[in-house]
Amino acid sequence: MLKGKKILIGVTGGIAAYKIATVVRLLIQEGCEVKVIMTQHAKEFITPLTLATLSRNPVLTEFFSPENGSWNSHVDLGIWADLFLIAPATANTISKMANGIADNLLLTTWLSARCPVFVAPSMDMDMLGHKAVRKNIDTLKSFGNHILDAPSGELASGLTGKGRMSEPDDIVKEIKAFFSKKKIISL
Ligand SMILES: Cc1cc2nc3c(=O)[nH]c(=O)nc-3n(C[C@H](O)[C@H](O)[C@H](O)COP(=O)(O)O)c2cc1C
After folding, report:
1. How far apart are alpha carbons 123 and 129 in whole angstroms?
2. For residue 44, what pLDDT is reported?
3. How many Cβ atoms are within 10 Å of 51's Cβ, its own excluded?
4. Spatial separation of the C-alpha atoms in residues 184 and 123, rounded to whole Å
5. DSSP code at position 64
6. Across the chain, what does the average pLDDT equal?
7. For the chain, what is the radius of gyration of the CA atoms?
8. Ligand 1: residues within 6 Å at CB?
């Protein structure tokens, strides 16, 4: 079902970033090509080395290398992908997306992407429930982005409530369901 699909994953600086290693692994097992973009903050939560090894591609964060002038084309990345998954998506990145801010590679790529975008919010329950965040998530929905519901459960803060990142298996199931629906429609 997912064999040969090109999946771009954007990782932001939330505590659930460790779960993205499993998502990458599952997608590779399904035969996907995977590229990963990380925000600077995401690197505090999971190393680029882990995600580069699992995805079999270098992890991208910077617009360019000051040492040799080579640069990463957000436009090419946005065109390359069949699907862009942003997971975990922090309140910060969701807010920037809702407002069209373009101050890192993940955001410029999102603005350039022509493919379907799936966003998996992940944050503390009170952050997720805040009107500012709700409004920003609604704005992303109005742009046509698919929001992966943040289930309830135990949060890293010690509180219990909504805000956990969707589990890796569930994320992959959603991606499969999306491509199988698309296939049926195009038959
Ligand atoms: C230990 C720790 C855990 C955090 N977890 C989250 C989180 O789960 N969700 C979130 O929205 N922000 C979280 N933050 C705050 C973000 O790291 C912060 O807003 C950062 O600016 C996000 O940057 P980015 O969106 O560019 O990756 C956490 C911060 C710390 C120190």
Report:
1. 10
2. 98
3. 26
4. 35
5. B
6. 94
7. 16
8. 12-16, 39, 41-42, 90-93, 122-123, 127
Task: Give pLDDT, residue 185.
Answer: 65
**Distance from Cα 171 to the centre of ligand 1, integer Å:** 20
Q: Given pLDDT bands bounded at 50, 70 and 90, which one contains residue 65?
A: confident
The arithmetic mean of pLDDT across residues 133-144, rounded, is: 98
Angle of the 168-186 helix axis to the 20-29 helix axis, nearest 10:
40
User: Token pair 């460790």 is at which residue?
Assistant: 18
**Nearest atom in ligand 1 to 104's CA:** 26
pLDDT of residue 184: 65
Atom 16 (ligand 1) nearest CA: 13
Q: Which domains, ranges and CATH numbers included, belong to the chain? A: 6-186 (3.40.50.1950)
The model's confidence at residue 183, banded by pLDDT at 50, 70 and 90, is: low
Neighbours of 186 (CB within 10 A): 6
